[in-house]
C-alpha cells in the first residue's frame, strides 16, 4: 500500500474511533470549548440528511486542526429518545427533531465561517442570502427543553383507519381497523366485528400487525 493510502486509512480509522467516542459520550451535544464570550452566537447549519453525526465529528477535528477551538465552541444535534415497534419488539431509538440540521455555537469571522462551510457534509448556513443569521438564546433554550422533555414513549407505525390483524390475546386472528392511536401509552383501539357489530377493543402495539 502506498504512503498516501496508509495515511488515508489511518485518518479513516481515527475518525471512526472519534465517532464512536462521541456517540458513547456526547450523543447529541458536543462541547469543544466552554465559553461565555458574548460574541459567540448560535447558528443553524444545514447538512446532508443522515450526515449530522459525521459533520459533528469532522467539525470538531477541523476546529482543533485549524486552532479555532476558541471560535467554534459547541455543536448540538437536536434529538429525542423514543420507543418504536420494530418486528414485534420495542426498541429505544434516537430520533432527529430536525433531520439535516445541526446547531453550532461560534464566533463568526471569515476563518470560522470557512471552516464550517467547507466541512464535508455541510451544505451551508441558514440565513438571509449568503449571510448566516444567528438564532436567539431563547430559541436554543426552547429546542434544548424540547429535547429533554418526556417524548411520546412510542412511535406508531400504524395509521387511523388502517386494516390490521390481531396476533395476540383473546381476539387473536380477528381482523379489524384502527379507530384511534395513543402513542403515549403504546395502545390502539381496533374496531372488531363481534356478533355482527363493530366493537372497539384496546390493544398494545405488539398485539397487532399490518395486513
Automatic annotation (TrEMBL):
InterPro entries per record: KOW, NGN, NGN-like_dom, NGN_dom_sf, NusG-like, Rib_uL2_dom2, Transcrpt_antiterm_NusG, Transcrpt_antiterm_NusG_bac_CS
Superkingdom as given in the UniProt entry: Bacteria
Pfam family, one: KOW
Domain NusG-like N-terminal: 39-147
Keywords on record: Transcription, Transcription antitermination, Transcription regulation, Transcription termination
An annotated GO BP: regulation of DNA-templated transcription elongation
Annotated TM spans: none
Residue ranges occupied by any KOW domain in the UniProt entry: 157-184
Purpose: Participates in transcription elongation, termination and antitermination.
Family label: Belongs to the NusG family.
Matches recorded under NCBIfam families: nusG
Descriptive protein name: Transcription termination/antitermination protein NusG
Amino acid at each position: 500500500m502506498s504512503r498516501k493510502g496508509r495515511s488515508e486509512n489511518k485518518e479513516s480509522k481515527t475518525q471512526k474511533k472519534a465517532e464512536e467516542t462521541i456517540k458513547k459520550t456526547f450523543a447529541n451535544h458536543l462541547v469543544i470549548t466552554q465559553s461565555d464570550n458574548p460574541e459567540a452566537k448560535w447558528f443553524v447549519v444545514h447538512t446532508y440528511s443522515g450526515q449530522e453525526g459525521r459533520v459533528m465529528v469532522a467539525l470538531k477535528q477541523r476546529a482543533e486542526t485549524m486552532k479555532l477551538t476558541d471560535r467554534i465552541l459547541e455543536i448540538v444535534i437536536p434529538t429525542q429518545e423514543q420507543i418504536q415497534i420494530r418486528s414485534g419488539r420495542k426498541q429505544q431509538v434516537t430520533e432527529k427533531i430536525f433531520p439535516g440540521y445541526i446547531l453550532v455555537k461560534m464566533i463568526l469571522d471569515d476563518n470560522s465561517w470557512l471552516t464550517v462551510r467547507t466541512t464535508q457534509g455541510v451544505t451551508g448556513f441558514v440565513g438571509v442570502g449568503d449571510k448566516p443569521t444567528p438564532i436567539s438564546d431563547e430559541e436554543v433554550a426552547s429546542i434544548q427543553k424540547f429535547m429533554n422533555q418526556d417524548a411520546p414513549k412510542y412511535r406508531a407505525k400504524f395509521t387511523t383507519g388502517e386494516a390490521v390483524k390481531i396476533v395476540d390475546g383473546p381476539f387473536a386472528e380477528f381482523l379489524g381497523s384502527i379507530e384511534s392511536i395513543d402513542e403515549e401509552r403504546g395502545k390502539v383501539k381496533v374496531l372488531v366485528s363481534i356478533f355482527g357489530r363493530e366493537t372497539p377493543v384496546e390493544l398494545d402495539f405488539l398485539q397487532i400487525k399490518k395486513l
